[in-house]
Give the backbone structure.
Amino acid sequence: MKYCDKCKVSVRGNREHCPLCNAVLHGEAEPSGFPRLPNEHKKHKLWISILALSSVSACIICLLLNFLFRKHGQWSLFVLGGVVCMWMTLGLALYKQRNIPKTMVWEVFLVGLLSVLWDYFTGWWGWSINYVLPIVSMGVMVVLVFLSRLFHVAAGSLIVYLLVDALMGVIQLVLLLTGCITVPLPSLLCVGVSTVMLAAMLIFRGRKVREELRRRLHL
């Protein structure tokens, strides 16, 4: 066991300096009495790498398609923006891991608000609701399902994930039905992705969600 000559105390573990006075410790180190916790980020490195490769591939494909069909405008830039937003959300969730759905809802709200204001003050071309909102919403939904699988979240949190997923799809559906959308494909994809994600979480984690609903609603 290491010893501090200044404080006259013994220190467990393999510290180099005294935790009280920061003086150099002397003596033989001994194993720490606390277990070493595994790094959760390293455990999920493979899944993150797969998602990164998929994101890069999607961006490259969209850029190539946009180059071939340039008459439809620079829509690939919105795809790139959606992917960047998705990775910002994922990075925040991985390192913060606190109230993830709330953070994502605020992020979609802020990105949507800024894009609508930008679109409005530049002459209103409609790109904010035709492209930005559905693409960002789809990115957030993918991250939500990815994180629910990655962290094995509790049933109570899963209910919040499901509500956020449903909210994303409902917003796009309302915009479609009210005629605000002039390019329906991205919004239709968003509604479809929302439905698929909801179905996936209900199928694979549905039992836990039902148990949590019974507990909360006293059914």
User: Anything to note?
Assistant: The chain has a mean pLDDT of 77. Residues 134 and 203 are 24 Å apart (CA to CA). The longest helix spans residues 184-217.
